């Protein structure tokens, strides 16, 4: 969820203001991913039964057909819900992303293991 929030925040704060939506695809069999994105405001647009993917269940990769569902989210509706909105504020005020409490803790833990 933090990765999705970060991607949405980057689109809204760092890219051109003409980008205000996210579009992604999820395989039809991946019901957990579908629920994950739906909880975060993504709406299914269509299903593409002609998609392909690599099947990695065996020793040899096989190119197999799969149905992918295309999801879209209007980022203008949920811009204030991102945990990363603090990061944009920190960057604009001269601070950095790593000044936020979460990243300070990550730096502490990573530094301790070196």
Describe, in plain words, how this protein is organized in 3D.
The protein has 114 residues and is of the alpha+beta class. The protein is 37% helix and 29% strand. It is built from four helices and three strands. It has helices at 2-13, 31-39, 85-92, 101-113; strands at residues 21-27, 43-55, 62-74. A three-stranded antiparallel sheet has the order 1-3-2. The longest helix is centred in the C-terminal third of the chain and has 13 residues, at 101-113.
User: How is the main sheet built?
Assistant: 3 strands, antiparallel
- Overall 3D geometry? elongated
**N→C terminal distance:** 27 Å
Number of strands: 3
Strand content: 25-35%
Task: Give the % helix.
Answer: 25-40%
Number of helices: 4
Oligomer: single chain
| Helix/strand order | HEHEEHH
Adjacency order of strands in the biggest sheet: 1-3-2
Rg to the nearest angstrom? 18 Å
Class from helix and strand fractions: alpha+beta
**Uncertain regions spanning at least 5 consecutive residues:** 80-98
- Arithmetic mean pLDDT: 76
């Amino acid at each position: 969820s933090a990765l999705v929030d970060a991607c949405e925040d980057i689109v809204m704060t760092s890219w051109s203001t003409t980008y205000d939506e996210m579009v992604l695809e999820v395989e039809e069999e991946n019901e957990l991913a579908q629920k994950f994105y739906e909880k975060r405001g993504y709406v299914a647009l269509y299903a593409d039964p002609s998609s392909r993917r690599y099947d990695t269940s065996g020793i040899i990769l096989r190119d197999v057909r799969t149905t992918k569902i295309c999801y879209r989210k209007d980022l203008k509706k949920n811009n204030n819900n991102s945990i990363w909105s603090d990061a944009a504020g920190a960057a604009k005020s001269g601070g950095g992303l790593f000044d936020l409490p979460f990243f300070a803790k990550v730096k502490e833990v990573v530094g301790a293991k070196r």
